[in-house]
Amino acid sequence: MAINVALYNRRGGRWAMTERGREALVRDDSTLAIGPSALRWDGTALRITLNEISFPKPARVRGEVVIHPEVRTTVPQVLDGAGRHVWWPFAPRSRVELRMDNPDIRWNGHGYFDFNCGSEPLQDAFSRWDWSRAPLADGGAALLYEVTPRQGADRLLSLRVDRDGALSAFSPPPKAPLGATGWRVARGTRCDVGAPPTVLRTLEDTPFYARSLLSTRLAGEETRAVHESIDLDRLRAGWVWPLLPFRMPRRGG
User: Fold this and answer.
1) Could you tell me the pTM of the whole model?
2) Residue pLDDT, tens place only, 113-122
């Protein structure tokens, strides 16, 4: 178990993801705590208290993130034919407050909150996926989730959420390649015809996972999207596992 913190700025930011044992877990109806960090739902906002050590360069990562959902959805989305994996874009549009003591950062802006859950490891069900979320001018968001399962046909979710939280499918735009990362992780998205997307910044580049910031056009609107690609065949590969402790150290509590 771990709470992953990734802070990005012009100086490089900080990364923390310390894996902890079961004894570090505390949870109830409104709180999930893993070691010294915790997520708490107060009825209107998700408050995330962080107290971690970055890696591989050790430095304190301490502060609070408050997510105020502006748009909520009520329908989780099934990702696989067997119904073992679910994705819920709970708050695809939110107001976010970041107050970090270490490093000293203050930020306010828009963001999102979603989660995946499943009854088996992701790499057992899928070989890869591409996902993205982009805000729209009407107060909603466009969501794209394209998965390649190990059994059965590819599945594509192309969803538009309005400011009241209603989800509706829209006709998926054509595929658009983004180019591989330094670790040669393939990236792809979908965008309107005649408007090829641009990778503004590669935020994470690892042997099996990439997170990027895109300039793109969806549903006729110019927008910026957060995009993720994951290669679960790579994650399964024997040479990847020895690399994980360099980004994800382990400790008991």
Assistant:
1) 0.92
2) 999 999 999 9
